[in-house]
Design brief:
The complex is a heterodimer of chains A (227) and B (214).
Chain A (H helix, E strand, L loop, with lengths): L6 H29 L3 H6 L6 E6 L6 H5 L6 E6 L9 H13 L4 E7 L3 H6 L9 H13 L1 H6 L3 H21 L2 H10 L3 E7 L6 E3 L4 H12 L6
Parallel strand pairs in A: 1-2, 1-3, 3-4
Antiparallel strand pairs in A: 4-5
Chain B lengths: L9 H19 L3 H6 L6 E6 L6 H4 L7 E6 L9 H13 L4 E7 L3 H7 L6 H16 L1 H5 L4 H21 L2 H10 L2 E8 L4 E4 L7 E2 L2 E2 L3
Parallel strand pairs in B: 1-2, 1-3, 3-4
Antiparallel strand pairs in B: 4-5, 6-7
Classes of the chains: A alpha/beta (227), B alpha/beta (214).
Chain lengths: 227, 214
């Protein structure tokens, strides 16, 4: 679409892009049925995913597709710039449900290079409704200002902020009572920080030290007592 | 499903999955990742459930880059939730998507929980409160249904409609609906069949499967 079409053309275009989803869905369901006739019946019995994925809303990173997982294997939350904000009931409900009810074994925070949200947060500009959400990324910058200010190459600085943002969100996850208490009892879930790169299509493990960080965090944020 | 990785470490399993995805994608189109790296221009914002059984891009047989995604517990859009509101703002104002989809599903744990009185802990009680309110408002209608599966399916539908009502009030959605004909769609995914269904809302303007907010 170029934005110069007649209203009737726009309608037709919208109808087509809308219908395509349904045609594709039908094709996919047929293929899955053919491969395994019990596939959908098994799925309707319930879910027991091993992983919780907290990723970016970015359309280019469908979590299941890039990790090769089937439906039923990964519980998913996606928001702008894969943030885990302390007072956000939305993400906290997801973490709570995944940890306490589904008993996931791994929690992955996955950022990506070239993230529009991170880029926007590096821009000195009023983003309206997005300001409070993106402020969390500016806070990450402030926490790591000494390191980031030293990087003179803008692209490298941006890449590093993407990584540091993932680290901080991993820390936010282990600040929660659900994760600390479940870990104390079962030694899971383990929190991981990853970054997806479009350059090669590969996931990079940032080697977030779950146990070490948990110990560090619990000096201040210990929520395991009187649980 | 879910059995092949028992012998291996679950993390190695998905990292190996990623390598396979990368090789497969590059083989099909050597420029695939270079193109993706240039940016995204999705047509659709999908607001769906965090449930592992509904990977949107997979069930819609779409390619990476086509659907912008927000997934939370029970695909609920609260008027005061800044997380979802930020996703909508970014998708509609900055990426200029033309369609917003709210997709609920059958066998939804969140919808089921909202039908019962179990204490889910304060966090989840609070998050699901609006869905439980729906149950109160539609008490008679729900009680008239034959079983819990039917009630859960009904509450999933009501929840989708309510989320759409909230979205209609989002300033970016309002503006885009007026200025360039952005449309909102309610869908239900049937987990037992693998199929998407369009929710037809009584009393709404419906044209060829498209529903335009007033």
């Amino acid at each position: 679409m170029t934005g110069k079409e007649e209203p009737k053309e726009v309608r037709k275009y919208l109808q087509q892009s809308h219908d395509r989803i349904f045609e594709n869905n039908k094709k996919w369901a047929e293929e899955m049925q053919k491969k395994n006739p019990a596939f959908f019946k098994d799925l309707s019995a319930g879910q027991s995913p091993e992983y919780l994925w907290i990723g970016c809303s970015d359309s280019r990173i469908p979590a299941e597709a890039i990790t090769g997982l089937d439906p039923g294997e990964m519980f998913i939350h996606r928001n702008i710039a894969n943030l885990v904000c302390n007072v956000d009931l939305n993400v906290m409900a997801v973490v709570n449900y995944a940890v306490r009810h589904l008993k996931v074994k791994h929690i992955v925070v996955c950022g990506h290079y070239g993230c529009g949200g991170v880029k926007a947060a590096m821009t000195p500009k009023d983003m309206g409704l997005l300001n409070p959400w993106l402020r969390n990324i500016r806070d990450v910058y402030r926490l790591h200002q000494a390191e980031l200010d030293k990087i003179t190459d803008e692209a490298k600085k941006y890449d590093r902020l993407v990584e540091l943002n993932v680290y901080e969100q991993c820390r936010n996850i282990i600040k929660t009572a659900a994760v600390q208490q479940c870990w104390a009892e079962n030694e899971y879930p383990v929190v991981h920080g990853w970054v997806f790169g479009f350059a090669d299509g590969l996931l990079k493990d940032l080697k977030f030290d779950h146990e070490g960080q948990l110990k560090e965090i619990q000096k201040i944020y210990d929520l395991t007592k009187d649980a | 499903m879910g059995t092949s990785y028992i012998a291996t470490d679950p993390l190695d399993y998905i990292l190996a999955g990623n390598r396979a995805y990368q090789q497969r994608t590059t083989k099909r189109d050597p420029n695939a990742f270079a193109l993706l790296a240039q940016g995204q221009a999705p047509e659709i914002l999908w607001i769906g459930c965090a449930d592992s059984r509904i990977p949107e891009t997979t069930v819609c047989h779409c390619k990476p880059g086509e659907i912008f995604v927000h997934r939370n517990i029970a695909n609920t859009v609260h008027a005061d939730d800044l997380n979802a509101a930020s996703v909508v703002e970014y998708a509609v104002t900055h990426l200029r998507v033309n369609q917003v989809v709210v997709c609920g599903h059958t066998k939804c744990g969140g919808a089921n929980a909202a039908l019962g009185d179990a204490d889910l802990g304060q966090t989840l009680n609070m998050w699901l409160h609006p869905v439980r309110e729906l149950r109160r408002k539609h008490k008679f209608e729900l009680e008239g249904l034959p079983d819990d599966d039917a009630r859960a399916a009904k509450i999933a539908e009501l929840n989708v409609q309510q989320s759409i009502e909230v979205l209609k009030q989002h300033p970016a959605v309002k503006r885009a609906a007026n200025e360039r004909g952005l449309t909102l769609h309610g869908l239900i995914y049937d987990i037992g069949a693998g199929e998407l269904k369009i929710l037809s809302e009584s009393g709404s303007k419906k044209m060829n499967g498209l529903w335009t907010p007033p």
